[in-house]
Amino acid sequence: KCKISCVVSNLFFFPLLPVFFHLHPVVFSMAEQNHSPRKELQHRTRAESPGKKSWHSQAYALGAISNFMSTFLTFPIYKVVFRQQIHAMVVSEAVRQLWHEGPQYFYRGIYPPLLSKTLQGTLLFGTYDSLLCSLSPIGPHSLGHRWTAGLMSGVVEAVALSPFERVQNVLQDGRKQARFPSTFSILKEFNSYGLWGRLSLGYYRGFWPVLLRNSLGSALYFSFKDPIQDGLAEQGLPHWVPALVSGSVNGTITCLVLYPLIVLVANMQSHIGWQRMPSLWASAQDVWDTRGRKVFLIYRGGSLVILRSSVTWGLTTAIHDFLQRRYHSRKELKD
User: Fold this and answer.
1) What CA–CA distance (Å, rounded) separates 139 from 132?
2) What CATH number does the domain containing 57 carry?
3) Residue 243 and residue 227: Cα distance in Å, rounded?
4) Residue 149 structural domain
5) Could you tell me how many helices (H) and strands (E) the chain has, helices first?
6) What does the DSSP assignment read for 226-240?
7) Could you check whether the bond before residue 163 is cis, i.e. omega within 30 degrees of 0?
8) Higher pLDDT, 8 or 254
């Protein structure tokens, strides 16, 4: 097991080492200094109007728009990835399965993730900005401030959005199409349970791994997004390149670290009904057994997940940064 784990780690992380070592001195010097033009602009805005609520409302809006656009563009990749996680199949098999089902089912299940990801961006960026302002109203923001604000925003996101992910995962499981052809049929099933059953077996099935995945993922993303982006900005690159690269690198590394939790959540939330509803430990054991007790097979489909995460977070960060710059430019013109 140890040898396989080492092989997997080397396989995924080795290509990223040149990027990391190139960014290493820049990233950590920026984490300490925080003197980039973008940071100075943010600090100045907060210093001029620390009590205004418009900044926070703008952060919620920017998060919603950026996540909506990136989710719509990357949904086809997600659909293939989900089939790999559920059925432990290769990419070509997953694509053939979707093709065999027909084009009318290819975008089946897009509405829950589109809504949930839009809400995710709203909560993630908005809550993070609000918490960060509470911890450090003017700045500069330390690594501890960013980590704490990111962790708590991930907790809020998990509590609010876990039901959407649950419905989405049932919809995208091809084995459930006949029994649950629509979102309404799934909601009807969940609402037929008792109060506790609606939460534990219905809407919040698999909540604990979701909570761990979201809180850690958010903390990692926000802790290192700004230092990487500010470090690249000092190299004289076009303003959209640092945001794109920062989001892509963050999304890739975070996905690699948390991928086993992603697989566990997908498998737990695809179960539905009162009978044969395994516990968290039993679900983890089942995933381990069905993957042949091999770490490499746990990471089957990881290449597409890494691609999706890299593209999604790269686009999200770049769009968010672009909209944020537009907002600051308009505000400066008005002032």
Assistant:
1) 9
2) 1.50.40.10
3) 11
4) 52-333
5) 14, 0
6) HHHHHHHHTTT--TH
7) no
8) 254
